[in-house]
Amino acid sequence: LPPLFLLLTALELSWSLSDEEKKIILDGHNKYRSGVSPPAMDMLKMSWDTELEAFAQAYAEKCIWDHNKERGRRGENLFAMAPTLDLEFAVEDWNGEEKYYNLTTSTCVPGQMCGHYTQVVWASTHQIGCGAKFCEKIDGIETEEMYLLVCNYYPPGNMKGRKPYKEGPSCSQCPEGRVCVNSLCEVEVDTGYPVSSLTTEDPALLESSALDTEELETNSDQTNMDQPTAGAPNTFLGPSLFLLPSVILVGLLL
Ligand SMILES: *[C@@H]1O[C@H](CO)[C@@H](O)[C@H](O)[C@H]1NC(C)=O
């Protein structure tokens, strides 16, 4: 057997996100969080969490187009795409639901999805970890050979009856131990304390643990899919995906 074939097979089996790809996802989230309009008083900067990453990767490997029922107290956004996986576009697509969301009334335009967006900009969510997998077949999607992206978040967003963030002057309500950088409340690094001790004292965490018994909104079960229209499976479709009717997505609402 040609060694190249074996190498490719091995790569495909062990494929997961590279450091560069993780950075694209994390930076994308922080970019949108930093730029929310109206501005946020309490928007925490997100950081990458390797445990969430491992959790998301393990679930992505299963190639299922449905939320992980074992996700516990973790938020989750899904995304599927072919023939390539454009991570910047995935985050942009989630955030793009912003246009359907009214922060004043905390409502979404009927028939649209907003839960991906509200998770992306959920102020108290400060950890993210994602995994991706090239799937020959995703259970729940007709199209074959698609990439599946799974992002898990902690603490989870989309708490019933809650707004994603508090509207007001940027950073005016950052939790203690955080400083304002680019309109985001960032963990102070030069305190001499280990980061973990800051994290356990994070008021946002305490607040969210008080929400333990609250149910996640039904529309927190968010899945999103972009796929090429028939006929050009090997062409990179890029920006044209923006024009895809949301009918495709609605059909996949769970
Ligand atoms: C949100 O809803 C309120 C109340 O219905 C309305 O006055 C406001 O214009 C809406 N905002 C946006 C951005 O649509």
Helix content: 25-40%
Residue-averaged pLDDT:
79
Oligomerization: single chain
Bound molecules: 2-acetamido-2-deoxy-beta-D-glucopyranose
Q: How large is the share of residues in beta strands?
A: 15-25%
| CATH-derived topology of the domain at 19-187 | Pathogenesis-related Protein p14a
Give a count of the beta strands, DSSP E runs of length 2 or more. Answer: 8
CATH architecture of the domain at 19-187: 3-Layer(aba) Sandwich
| Morphology call | globular
Order of helices and strands: HHEHEHEEHEEEEHHH
Corresponding CATH superfamily of the domain at 19-187: CAP
Report the span from N to C terminus.
Answer: 43 Å
Compute the CA-based radius of gyration: 19 Å
Number of helices: 8
Q: How are the SSEs ordered, and which strands pair?
A:
Blueprint: H1 3-14, H2 19-34, E1 47-48, H3 50-60, E2 75-81, H4 87-95, E3 101-102, E4 107-108, H5 115-120, E5 127-137, E6 144-154, E7 178-181, E8 184-187, H6 195-200, H7 203-209, H8 247-250
Parallel strand pairs: 1-5
Antiparallel strand pairs: 2-6, 3-4, 5-6, 7-8
Helix pairs in contact: 2-4
Bound molecules: 2-acetamido-2-deoxy-beta-D-glucopyranose.
In words, what does this structure look like?
- The protein is built from eight helices and eight strands; from the N terminus they run ααβαβαββαββββααα.
- It has 254 residues and is α+β, with helices and mostly antiparallel strands.
- It has a four-stranded mixed beta sheet with strand order 1-5-6-2.
- The longest helix has 16 residues, at 19-34.
- It has a domain at 19-187: Pathogenesis-related Protein p14a (3-Layer(aba) Sandwich), CATH 3.40.33.10.
- The protein has helices at residues 3-14, 19-34, 50-60, 87-95, 115-120, 195-200, 203-209, 247-250; strands spanning 47-48, 75-81, 101-102, 107-108, 127-137, 144-154, 178-181, 184-187.
- A hairpin with a 6-residue loop joins β5 (127-137) and β6 (144-154).
- α2 (19-34) runs parallel beside α4.
- The site of 2-acetamido-2-deoxy-beta-D-glucopyranose (NAG) has 3 residues, from loops.
- 2-acetamido-2-deoxy-beta-D-glucopyranose is lined by residues 102, 104-105.
- Belongs to the CRISP family.
- Residues 1-16 form the signal peptide.
- One of its GO terms (molecular function) is peptidase inhibitor activity.
- It is found in: Secreted.
